[in-house]
Amino acid sequence: MQLRILTLNIWGVHYVSKLIHQRIQALIEHLINPDTNYDIVGLQEVWSKVDYIYLRDQLKSIYPYSYYFLSGLVGSGCCLFSKYPIIGAYEHRYTLNGFPHKIQHGDWFCGKLIGLCKILVNGYVINVYNTHLHANYHHVIPKDIYLGHRICQAYELIQFIESTSSADTTHLTILLGDLNLTNDDLGFKLINGILQLNDSFLQRINKDIFDPTVGNDGQTCDLLDNPYIHPHPYQGQGERIDYILYRARNDNVKCIEAYPTLHKVPNNPNGLYYSDHLAVYALFEIDENIPEKKPIPLDDIDIMDDETRNNLRSACIIVEESIQRIQRDRIFFALGVFILIFILFSFNNNSLLNGYLLTIFIILKNLFCLIGISISIWFIGLGKPVERNGLSSILNAMHLRLRVSQFFH
After folding, report:
1. Candidates 30, 92, 149, 277; catalytic one
2. For residue 274, with 0-12 CB atoms within 10 Å meaning exposed, 13-18 middle and 19 or more buried, which class applies?
3. Which end is more exposed in the chain, N or C (fewer Cβ atoms within 10 Å of the end residue's Cβ)?
4. Endonuclease/exonuclease/phosphatase domain: which residues (predicted)?
């Protein structure tokens, strides 16, 4: 039995992304093409439910089963289309997802999550997880204020998959989506090291099969020839941050092909591209003749190898530093409150201004100060404590895993 899977971040941010409707239509035409023949399609950044409904209605003749993960103010952006029945759906919204005052980034307003669809394929239960982690806007670790959040999201992803992919009920586990993590990032190493997932691109058998319009280096984002990207000072030839990862209960699943695809829309006179990301395609072969694998006794399981333990300790340090930053932030906002209160009750009698200008000046000054004081108090009393508790919760879970691993090492 063969299983064809595709994942794509469609870059569907209305009023920001370019040519959304044309690109979605081009994607639909590709998906309904008989030559493509995907079984499961996972999409990210479908921020508009109207776009999802349009996709669902246009694709239902080929993909009769679909699911949209609703979350947050503008949705999670994640959805899934399948030729096979979806028999269950679950989701976990990430505890931490950026900052509300970083409006230009927008992640806080999105309900980013990891969503699970349990799909029944010819008697096999396949858990397909779709996710989109927090973006990296700085690309340099010391300046990456979201690093602690992405580490925590990666660990929550690990916890969710561990809790929902029991070997007794799941034949195949597939994690797909935009992880916003390269192979060398700590979060990705934790996901691979703890969950023992296989990277379809690296584990593929036919390494000479690839999309000739893209190349065979595996890059999926920040490609120099994509007109939708915004170059940054530390950009190379591209990054690989979109993945299809998998793990089978038995040794009966092989990845035959896997490669990035869907770059430039073919035969389009306007030079249209599908997205600012590339899609990732994988072809799996499931041998139905291999007998069931016997469960391994817990005493014989090595929960983590030494490299993963060291990575987890490094993750703990990063989260601890994020917690320390919160205390500094609260002190900064407290100082801001005192300064704004001082300004609020000062400069109310300025002899250099006449009565009309003085009134306008006082109103604007007081309004600015009151807004600033309100925001600062919100951060001190609510925003930062919530972030601290979220970080502390994940940190405690990491420490617990490190302690437990000592009993099996």
Report:
1. 277
2. buried
3. C
4. 6-277
Please say whether the structural domain 2-295 has been given the CATH code 3.30.365.10. Answer: no
Contact 71, 90 (CB under 8 A): no
Query: 3-class DSSP state for residue 30?
Result: helix
Distance of CA 317 to the CA centre of its chain: 22
Domain segments of the chain as ranges: 2-295, 306-407
Residue for token pair 């405690």: 396
